[in-house]
Amino acid sequence: MKIVLAIDGSDYSKMAVNELGAIPLPAGTEVCILNVFENPMLAVPMGGTLGNYYEEAISNARKSAEAIVNDASKLLKIENDKLSITTVVVNGIPKSAILEKAEAFDADLIVVGSQGHGAFSRFLLGSVSQSLATHADCSVLIVRKRSI
């Protein structure tokens, strides 16, 4: 079985990591943990220059994304040491990048967290999980954060 676990470091994606860790997966299961970061918004102070601010912002975003996927990898290994885990960090638009990775990886399943937006928020913001469920060629597990 091949699984793409798409995470962003939010509480919602942490729930997805925990849920995947709780599923009894067969030996030989391959998990690709993916983080897609978008270019940070740039703000130039009045009278300032960009200098190397852009490169530093991208570098910092990449380092943060790498820490997120590495932490998730460690947690999954604790739950199931028989998993084959790879981590990938890419710069792009999450909806597209996740679908592209799932296709290239020949995934059987995509696992993501859901932020639980209402209909109006989905209309304004779009929903990565909704887009994946609609457009993926494989099954999609959308993990919702349980309300207490």
UniProtKB/TrEMBL annotation:
Residues 2-144 form the UspA domain. Coiled coil: none annotated. Transmembrane segments: none annotated. It holds the Pfam family Usp. PANTHER family: UNIVERSAL STRESS PROTEIN SLR1230 (PTHR43010), USPA DOMAIN-CONTAINING PROTEIN (PTHR43010:SF1). Belongs to the universal stress protein A family. This is Nucleotide-binding universal stress UspA family protein.
